[in-house]
Amino acid sequence: MMILGLVRWMQPVHGYDVRRELLSWGADKWANVQPGSIYHALRKLTEEGLIRAVATEQVGARPARTTYEVTPVGEDEFQTLLRGFWWGLSEPLDPFSAAFGFLPALPRSEAAAALRNRANLLRANVASMRASLESDWIRNSKPVHVGWMFELWAARAEAELSWCEQVADRVESGVSYLPAELENAEGWSAWREGGAPLDADPE
Question: Which residue among 15, 49, 74, 197 is the one 20 to 30 A from 135 at the CA level?
Answer without folding.
Answer: 15
